[in-house]
Every structure is written in C-alpha cells, then in structure tokens.
C-alpha cells in the first residue's frame, strides 16, 4: 500500500502506508528535505486536508488516515507569531507550471486502477 506525494519543484515520491503515522510523518519530512520541526500536512485531490499535525504522535497505522494509491499535495503549515490560527502554504510552488492541469487531472489519476 502506498500514496504518491507531489512537492517541491516538479518532484514526487511514493510513500509506504504500512507504518505508524508518527513514522510516516517523519519519513515524509526527511524525504521531502524539510526540517523535522516543520508543521506539514497533505491535501488530497478533492482539496481535503488530512490534518497530520494533530496526529503527529499517533501510533495508528498511516493507512487509517490515507487511502492507498492516491495522490496528495504536500503543504507546510505556517503559524504567524501574532496569530493562533495557521495558514497553509503550498510546498509545490511551481506545480501548475510543471504538472499541466494538475488540479483537474489529479482526480483522474486517483481513479486509475494501477
């Protein structure tokens, strides 16, 4: 079981879901070259945010939150020092340029039976 994460400038990685969420998130940050203290999240093709930050210490299986063979976009949660609410900043700033029509085609990719 795996998911594909789109991030950075024209990058994507496959991640195994057969692990605990705490390990999945650690591996996600490591392989995407992010600081381990960074707050990250994933967004699925429907625009739903997975809320990984709230589950960062969970020992539940990653497969309990993420659906296998799906594509997700890596997000970084930025907290303003004067605000308690977070804003999401896409880590894939050039996604639309490098992955033509990604916002329309990502749902088609998720429906493929691979």
* Global shape: globular
Give the biggest sheet: 5 strands, mixed
Percentage of β-strand residues: 25-35%
H/E order of the elements?
A: EEHEEEHH
Estimate the helix proportion, in percent: 10-25%
Describe the structure in brief.
Helices cover 21% and strands 27% of the residues.
Topology:
Blueprint: E1 2-7, E2 11-16, H1 21-31, E3 39-43, E4 71-79, E5 86-90, H2 95-98, H3 102-110
Parallel strand pairs: 1-4
Antiparallel strand pairs: 1-2, 3-4, 4-5
What does this molecule look like?
- It is a single chain.
- By secondary structure, the chain is of the alpha+beta class.
- 21% of the residues lie in helices and 27% in strands.
- The longest helix is centred in the first third of the chain and has 11 residues, at 21-31.
- It is globular and about 30 Å long.
Q: Keywords for this structure?
A:
114 residues, alpha+beta, 5 strands, globular
């Amino acid at each position: 079981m795996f998911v594909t994460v789109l991030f950075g400038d024209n990058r994507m990685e496959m991640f195994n879901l057969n692990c605990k969420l705490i390990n999945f998130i650690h591996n996600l940050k490591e392989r995407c070259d992010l600081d381990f203290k960074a707050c990250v999240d994933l967004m699925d093709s429907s625009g739903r945010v997975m809320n990984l930050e709230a589950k960062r210490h969970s020992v539940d299986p990653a497969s309990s939150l993420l659906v296998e063979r799906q594509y997700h976009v890596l997000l970084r949660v930025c907290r303003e020092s004067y605000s308690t609410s977070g804003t999401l900043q896409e880590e894939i700033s050039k996604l639309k340029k490098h992955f033509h029509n990604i916002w329309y085609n990502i749902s088609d990719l998720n429906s493929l039976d691979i």
